[in-house]
Amino acid sequence: TWSAVPAGPPDPILGVTEAFKADKDPRKINLGVGAYRDENGKPYVLPSVLKAEEIITASKADKEYLPITGLADFTKLAAKLAYGADSAPLQEGRISSTQSISGTGALRIGGAFLARHYPHSKTIFLPVPSWGNHTPVFRDSGLEVKGYRYFDKKTVGLDFAGLKEDLRNAPEKSIVLLHACAHNPTGVDPTPEQWAEISDICKERGLFPFFDMAYQGFASGNTARDAFALRHFVKEGHQVALAQSFAKNMGLYGERVGLFSLTTSSPEEKARVDSQVKIIVRPMYSNPPIHGARIAGTILGSPELYTQWESEVAGMANRIISMRDKLYDTLTHDLKTPGEWRHIKSQIGMFSFTGLTPPQTKALAEKAHIYMTGDGRISMAGLNGGNIVYFAEGVNAAVRG
Ligand code: PMP
Predict the structure, then answer these.
(1) Where's the Aminotransferase class I/classII large domain (predicted)?
(2) How far is the CA of 367 from the centre of ligand 1 (A)?
(3) What is the pLDDT of residue 254?
(4) Where in the chain do CATH 3.40.640.10 domains reside?
(5) Alpha-carbon distance 137 to 145, whole Å?
(6) What tens digit of pLDDT does each residue of 232-251 get?
(7) Measured from the CB, is residue 113 less than 6 Å from ligand 1?
(8) Three-state secondary structure along 103-127?
(9) CATH code 3.90.1150.10 region(s) in the chain
């Protein structure tokens, strides 16, 4: 029956992990994976998450189905975290939201909703490059995917002129995907002033902004600061779609906790949108999983746990920032590695686009047992006090050839 099914290509990031696992050298480092690692290179379960789980266990909560749109005690608080307590659409009860299978699920629900109900366009513009799963998610949702310039290889920074030109030339009312903060894979974000200009262009062209916020709090260590772009757009009167993930900022990766939301113009319109979101979710997975949403809801709903969680997110963000500083100093001052490495420090979030070329990344894997994606992206979280000098020495050798 399946004799005509062709073998598909392997996932590029999971391929890195497989090569890493097969390597027996004790010095090996995996910088491909997009999950936080602590100072000892180990996965990190947040203490606030452990406390929330104790509270949930003690409550002897049942395991009944959630409603189609998820756990209300979680969804309300997740929307508040993103939009801010003083957000007009939140206060006026006109945000439609539904719990999702983490950020990916939120993007997929959003893609499907826009493909079915957005009346003006079926085209979504993604930054080039973008997270590798964006194209398949939106294509499989029924949208046509196009790109707008984002990254400038020469400066290892934002191609702001190219970005503006491409958005100005996009057909009116197209959908545009924006990484709310900590752009993956480049680690390059617009400044607040540049965001304000992007908002103006979206207004001029009537572009519909779809924010992907997978790293709130993880970029700067401050959840409000990381929500600046989203909140600015909403304040400027844009209607937006938003995909949120609690994988990184609460370390709830495998629990699959997320939220899809849309701002609407009235509570009455919100109710109609809600009904259509349910019609999309019900035949896909009926209703979302309960445990992770309870954890996130418990943390967001308890002033004490919330404060603790905020400091734990800041701890993760700051450890990454300290690794950026250390890597920059080691390359530039200690090893005098040829090239300009300032972008290591100016980039933000979990990832850094190092500027290393495919042959250099290959040499790092073969000679130094250091693994990363072929585009030179590294997860800063994979670096720690125990391996960062070894890593810098490997980069230095690869660059010198
Ligand atoms: N968007 C971006 C930009 C991401 O980097 C990720 C995680 N790698 C996601 C969405 C979704 O991840 P998840 O489904 O695990 O929340």
Answers:
(1) 27-393
(2) 31
(3) 96
(4) 65-301
(5) 10
(6) 999 999 999 999 999 999 99
(7) no
(8) HHHHHHHHHHHHHHHCCCCCEEEEE
(9) 12-44+317-396
Q: Is the distance from CB of 314 to CB of 217 less than 8 angstroms?
A: yes
Looking at ligand 1, which residue's alpha carbon is closest to its atom 16? 103
Choosing from 248, 270, 309, 341, the catalytic residue is 248
pLDDT over 90 (residue 137): yes
Find the length of the chain: 401
Helix (H) or strand (E) holding 346: helix 342-346
Q: Is the CB of 214 under 6 A from ligand 1?
A: yes
pLDDT digits (tens, 9 = 90+) for 163-212: 999 999 999 999 999 999 999 999 999 999 999 999 999 999 999 999 99
Q: Is the CB of 187 under 6 A from ligand 1?
A: no
Mean pLDDT within 7-33:
89
- What are the backbone angles phi and psi of residue 348, rounded to the nearest 5°? -135, 150
Q: Between 11 and 140, where is the model more confident?
A: 140
Give yes or no: 212 in active site. yes
Ligand 1 pocket mutation pick from 184, 246, 257 by most atoms within 8 angstroms of CB: 184
Given this model, what pLDDT does residue 21 score? 93
Fold of the domain spanning 65-301: Aspartate Aminotransferase; domain 2 (3.40.640)
CATH says 12-44+317-396 is which class? alpha beta
d(CA 190, CA 208): 18
Spot the catalytic one: 159, 189, 212, 226: 212
Closest ligand 1 atom, residue 107 Cα: 10
Separation of CA 379 and ligand 1 centre (Å): 14
